[in-house]
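hey can u check if this looks right to u? its 103 residues, i copy pasted from the old doc so theres a chance i mangled smth
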Amino acid sequence: MNDYTKKSETGKLDRLVARYEEFHQDETNRLVHFICVPLIALTLIGLLWCIKIPTTLGDELSFTLNAGAVFIGLASVYYLFLSLGSLMGMLFFGLAASVLCIS
């Protein structure tokens, strides 16, 4: 079995996780990533949330489109192509980040 056959038999998410594990063998490194990566993502969404996108839909809408919501939407599409489980995780995280940004 050659490398091309191996790549086609495994999903993209499996390959990404395997590559991640190659570089994250140390428990301290894993703990730092477990804590800091979500904080960095939340900070990025919060900063993007401040960038308002003008719409021509009128003032009667109760929401304002912003770059944070667009980022969550685009990231959700990416995670959908990885797996349904990762999409659900992204949607949960995106919803939680949205609630924090709104309040």
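Residues 8-102 form one domain.
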